[in-house]
Amino acid sequence: MTDATFSIVIDDQEISARPGQTILQAADDAGLYIPRLCAHKDLVPHGSCRVCTVKVNGRPQSACTQPAAAGQVIESETDEIRGVRRAIVDMLFVEGNHLCPFCEKSGDCELQAVAYRLGIAAPKYPFLFPKREVDASHPKIMIDHNRCVLCGRCVRASRDLDGKHVFDFVGRGIDKKVAVNSAAKLADTNIDISDKAVDVCPVGAILRKRVGYVVPVGERTYDHDPIGSKIEAARER
Amino acid sequence: MSDILKASIEEFTLAVDNDRSRMMDVVNAVQAKYGCVSSEAMDLIAEAMDVKRVEVESVISFYGFLSNEQKGKVVIRLCNDVVDKMLGYDEVAAAFKFELGIDFGETTPDGNISLETTACMGMCDQAPAALVNDVVVTELSTDKVRRIIAELRRSLDPERLVTKLGDGNNEHDLVHAMVHNNIRSAGPVVLAGLGAGKALKKALAMTPQEVIRSLKASRLRGRGGAGFPTGMKWEFTRAALSLGSDKYVICNADEGEPGTFKDRVILTEYPDILIEGMTIAGYAIGAAHGVLYLRGEYAYLRAFLEQELAKRRELGLLGRDVAGKTGFDFDIRVQMGAGAYICGEETALISSCEGLRGDPKNRPPFPAQKGMLGRPTSVNNVETFCSVARILERGSGWFNQLGSKGSPGTKLLSISGDCNRPGVYEMEFGTPLREVLKLAGGLNAQAVQVGGPSGELVGPEQFDRAICYDDLATGGAIVVFGADRDLLEVVAEYLEFFVEESCGYCTPCRVGNLLLKQRIDHIRAGRGEKADVAYLQELGESIRFTSRCGLGQTSPNPVLSSLRNFPALYEEVLKEETRGFHRRFDLASAVSKAEEIVGRKSSHSEEAGAV
Ligand SMILES: Cc1cc2nc3c(=O)[nH]c(=O)nc-3n(C[C@H](O)[C@H](O)[C@H](O)COP(=O)(O)O)c2cc1C
Predict the structure, then answer these.
(1) Do both A112 and A43 map to the same domain?
(2) Total domain count, chain A
(3) B324-347 average pLDDT score
(4) CA pair distance A237, A218, nearest whole angstrom
(5) Are residues A196 and A128 in the same domain?
(6) Which of A5, A84, B190, B564 has the most neighbouring CB atoms within 10 Å?
(7) Ligand 1: residues within 6 Å at CB?
């Protein structure tokens, strides 16, 4: 392998990429934002939410897992792709119980922010209203499965960054969920408030207790600038 | 209990050298012996194999045949495939419930017998069928159910249910099954039953590169569904870097596509040809390890297959210096699945072989580069390996003359449903569907599902299309639907299958298939409206477009292909939406919870019921 950069084309813009980069990483560096949920800069790619779906040389791929390669022609902000991204985000909303007005993550929530960015006012699919659990057993951390989008960030962070493997997926299909490494509750695991796994949740599923409103609504991450703005700022400079 | 359990788990984990990647063997053994993998067992397995408990739970909760709740000593799993439902499932299911006095999902109060359903178990040619522990019972009737339950109540020994044996090796002591092969048409390649012995000798006389070259010349494509050129796959796997011969050859005997059962017949009658094909793969690729991944439903073939492997080991055809070829070491082990259709997808299959949940993996890297335990791996279908052996024996020129121009060779078809002669047919590629139907006696068909639910539902005007890679591609399943079958019900059943079998890893497949199923259910309940066609189309295409693996990329096919080929099905039942009122909104059920709480009927109830 060489370190020589090469170019790829995203929506008619030629950008440069390095060997070993994914399409998502190359796009980020070039200041092109591709919406995503399960992807996180410190974690191995998961490829599960499918929000970052793009067309690579005519074939749908997830940008977070697909390596950039010289000469790729990529479509991202087309009507077709925006349509399927909306479909996926809609699915995530109806699959769980996401009550933004009551959620302390509102304004800091990536699901909510991506939905706004995609112009979603209300999901087009019927709500499934699943019955899901809340685990508030731990003195400092709580899990509300109602808001979980199964992105696996906590699973990967705990396993790969914290070296603990506190979380993993159990069940399959629509019954799939995140479980903790104990017979019952989070309190029985060795999770610690300083674990990376506590911070990576894109939604309000894993929450630190007693800090929910320290930052008031109106001053939160996505209250003024839509998600992706930071990435795009790199391009405007 | 605890000490005994601990001792058994130590025994099971020791048997696999506490190798974490052999988790499936351990949990399967615990399940078989104790009727569940309890919370306590999970802790013990985690400790013995040096993994986290949640990793064990993650595996157990994934597979249909594993459970953390106590099951009876005998577990009856009635196959609920579409074909079984066409051939008497309802009566048989009712008989099981009546005789046992329990519902599906329950265990008799004495803790002896559990009753469950399972997806297609590869017996559509002799449906309705069920698994009783590992024992297969076929052609069920209410009478047969009565006798089965009486015998089980008496002896709790499923083996005693096999009173009449099937044909061929089903009579073999180690198989001992009532299953019939139903080989209706043996073609020149696979079911000719030739090839073992000679093929390997010829292959070993060539260089590995020559073997691959002759496979490429034969233009053999994979028989498992995706149709990838076999020679090319082996070439990639051979070229991939590894430490010496630390590569894997895996045989995909997961055969889970509803309506498929041809691999069952090969495994029963021609395992030697299959093993020979795998051995040739080992030689061509430079692999030392072979794995035969056998679906849990075919556990009744396991002992027989193990013995076939042992026989070949004794003959020097497996092990060190295979067939006298110095430096060519290759052996094969059997890996049991545990009831998960997704494990037929090659990267999910690899996950399962690694002792993980059967989640597919991200590609790239492809298995040829990084597969089993990160090593270069070629996964091929049972029938593909058999074709390989025959090609090596007879030459690629011979093979090339069979079949059609773009698709040389033959295809084993599993034909079932409304036809007089269900069974396995080996046909040359290029054969029109109409001819296949005639042979099988499926004369009055209004529709045929080609390639199983992930394939295409076609109608009579398409019966002249040919079975081949460029037209009607199929992994082998052909299900025939007679004139009075309700095709929307078929669509709903197949969707239900995908909902059940989705691994849940990616959003569109996990959620989208359920949404499709719900809308079809509304339509079938008479609550459809015109706009549903666009809804189904768009939803189906979104799932297909964005899903991570072949399951989600094909699961909307029952809907999409019926919309395309049978639009009248929908037009007949869909009504105009009136005044912005959604017909699918069911007022009665929407207010039912509230009615329960307040303890009286809503004034809207009657009105709503009348919609
Ligand atoms: C959901 C799903 C299930 C599959 N099931 C099987 C199967 O049971 N048997 C099989 O050989 N291939 C199956 N496949 C195809 C495999 O992924 C893979 O393409 C095949 O085993 C490769 O072997 P071949 O090249 O010899 O066809 C399945 C694919 C998907 C997406």
Answers:
(1) no
(2) 2
(3) 97
(4) 26
(5) yes
(6) B190
(7) B 222-226, 228, 252, 254-257, 342, 344-346, 379-381, 384, 549-551
